[in-house]
Design brief:
Elements (H helix, E strand, L loop, with lengths): L8 E5 L3 H13 L6 E6 L15 H8 L4 H8 L2 E3 L1 E5 L7 E5 L12 H8 L13 H7 L20 E3 L2 H14 L3 E4 L2 E6 L6 E6 L4 E3 L2 E4 L6 H6 L4 E3 L8 E4 L12 E5 L4 E6 L4 E7 L6 H11 L9 E4 L3 E3 L3 E2 L2 E3 L5 E2 L7 H14 L8 H27 L7 H7 L5 H13 L12 H10 L16 H21 L3 H8 L7
Parallel strand pairs: 1-2, 1-11, 2-7, 4-14, 11-20
Antiparallel strand pairs: 3-6, 4-5, 8-9, 9-10, 12-18, 13-16, 13-17, 14-15, 15-16, 18-21, 19-20
Helix pairs in contact: 1-6, 1-9, 5-14, 9-10
Bound molecules: flavin-adenine dinucleotide.
């Protein structure tokens, strides 16, 4: 076979989560025998060192890499995550849970929630969370892996992880380098472009090393060293839709039970996160510099810590939005260099995983077919837009008007795609998943209901079933879920028993 056109050399710039996730996947899928894979990173520049909460898709990524889950959990101090609790978002004093997994079970070929909508005003059925095993289990601080018994409700457990992002990058660095990826410690000073094609030809490092490559992956973080600084690709700015543009992070020791869920608490400006790991708690505050000074933000987070901080404050800043093209010429931006939507629903690492999957599907030859590049960019754009809409939902549908910030959010001019979702749900409780979007019906239901939308009606075909029969079934589902949660082990005990050596926490 004539492989003269095959990519023989890939250069990745950046050794954060994006760089090492990409390097690991390339090493595993393409291998380093026929293609040289080099990653250059600079310890002087460092990484964002956040990204501790994930969504269930990360399991698939680790599985493709054949990563042993126990080894990964021990190495990264991981805990399990069944969803996110949103506190004070709809209004102060209110809380709701966005679970992984399903609500109830579909009946009569209709989604479960339509039956629930019909009965939601009956006090016995008013709590939607009672129909989600993840929610009931999470609030009882329970966790177990999905049961292998197909017909058990416990088989439907869907979970993600909280972990130390820096340790995850280190884990993947060991994984990649042991499979032949070359790591270079150095700073990229110059990017050399071909004067005719505009393609990237080489990178020049601070010690004058020249790195040639066929394909360049930009994992250099927010600045987009290759995709923006060299190729001037352009950026779509969504600050008007999502005003938070800064965050501070600060870990501390845990003083509480090891919750199997992330907590997100709305503040007068933005929100704080609490992410429990085995050995510490990750805390952060996401805010808007338009509405809050850094000093006030620091004081707010500091006052919320449950114990003394374990590290200096990590200050981060971004422009919400996405690169106009993630793939431009022979450069693909993956991670923060491709764009960023605030971490409210833990989507950052997933977007990296998803970009890697698309790269594998559309892996180029040296011809760089424009139709492949266009499809990659089109799919990336749709994905970012849908995630953006889902995040806006949390801010837009609020009753809060206790600050300038929340009054601004209530008046955000929503994209049409989001207006349509809200209109459909408000009328008949209908939820449609477009273009294979990331967030499924459970997620949209959890947040639309949680933020206070009460549909005028429900699917008309629900009325085919006698109301007493609906009540009987709802009662039954609720009771099965409650009994299933009862048999789940305590999350903290489960981790101690299975993953931690002796007395780690
Ligand atoms: P970085 O971590 O910034 O890495 C950039 C790399 O490029 C570094 O190694 C740096 O040294 C290197 N580099 C830069 N310039 C040069 C140069 N000139 N020469 C050589 N090397 C260079 N995601 C989630 O999934 N869950 C979360 O809970 C979550 N929380 C987040 C909270 C905040 C506040 C933020 C900002 C992000 C969060 N994310 C989260 C997103 C997640 O952190 C990122 O998607 C992920 O860390 C990927 O970052 P990165 O590798 O693209 O960039």
């Amino acid at each position: 076979m004539n492989d003269v056109n095959n990519i023989k050399s890939i250069v990745i710039v950046g050794g954060g989560s994006a760089g090492w996730m990409t390097a690991s996947a390339l090493a595993k899928v393409i291998g380093c025998d026929n293609c040289q894979i080099t990653l250059v990173e600079s310890e002087d520049i460092g990484t964002v060192s956040v990204g501790e909460a994930t969504i269930p898709q990360i399991q698939l990524f680790n599985t493709i890499l054949d990563i042993d889950e126990s080894e990964f959990i021990r190495f990264t101090n991981a805990t399990f995550k069944l969803g996110i609790e949103f506190i004070d978002w709809k209004e102060k004093g209110h809380r709701y849970f966005h679970p992984f997994g399903n609500y109830g079970t579909n009946m009569e070929a209709l989604p479960f929630h339509h039956f629930w909508l019909k009965m939601q005003d009956e006090p016995a059925f008013s709590n939607l969370s009672n129909f989600s095993l993840a929610s009931v289990g999470a609030y009882a601080n329970k966790f177990m892996h999905p049961s292998t018994q197909q017909n058990s409700p416990l088989a439907g457990i869907n979970y993600a992880y909280h972990f130390d992002a820096t340790l995850y990058a280190k884990f993947l660095r060991n994984y990649s380098t042991s499979r032949g990826v070359s790591r270079i410690e150095g700073k990229v000073d110059e990017v050399m472009l071909n004067p005719v094609s505009g393609m990237i030809e080489s990178l020049i490092l601070n010690d004058n090393t020249v790195l040639n490559g066929d394909l360049f992956i930009d994992c250099s973080g927010f600045k987009g060293l290759l995709i923006e600084q060299a190729l001037k690709t352009g950026y779509e700015d969504w600050t008007h839709l999502l005003p938070c543009n800064k965050a501070i992070a600060m870990p501390c020791l845990s003083k509480k039970t090891l919750n199997p869920y992330t907590q997100s608490t709305a503040q007068s400006v933005g929100w704080t996160w609490r992410i429990p790991l085995q050995n510490r708690v990750g805390n952060g505050y996401v805010y808007s510099s338009e509405f809050m000074s850094d000093d006030k933000a620091h004081a707010l987070l500091f006052n919320k810590l449950e114990s003394d901080p374990l590290a200096d404050i990590n200050q981060l800043q971004w422009v919400t939005g996405m690169r106009k093209k993630s793939w431009n010429k022979n450069c693909i931006a993956i991670g923060l260099s491709a764009g960023f939507v605030e971490p409210l629903e833990s989507t950052g690492l997933h977007l990296i995983q998803s970009a890697i999957a698309k790269l594998m599907t559309l892996f180029p030859s040296k011809d760089f077919a424009q139709c492949d590049i266009d499809l990659f960019n089109q799919q990336t754009e749709t994905e970012y837009h849908r995630i953006r809409d889902f995040i806006i939902l949390h801010y837009k549908l609020t009753n809060r008007d206790d600050s300038e910030f929340w009054r601004y959010c209530k008046n955000i001019d929503m994209p049409d795609s989001l207006k349509q979702k809200i209109a459909m749900f408000s009328e008949n409780g209908r939820i449609f998943r477009h273009d294979n979007e990331l967030f499924n019906e459970t997620s949209w239901l959890a947040v639309m209901h949680g933020q206070g939308i009460k549909p005028k009606s429900y699917h008309p075909l629900v009325d085919r079933l006698n109301p007493d029969e609906i009540k009987r079934r709802l009662k039954n589902i609720e009771s099965v879920i409650s009994r299933s949660a009862d048999v789940m082990p305590d999350h903290e005990a489960y981790i101690l028993k299975n993953y931690t050596p002796n007395d780690t926490f």
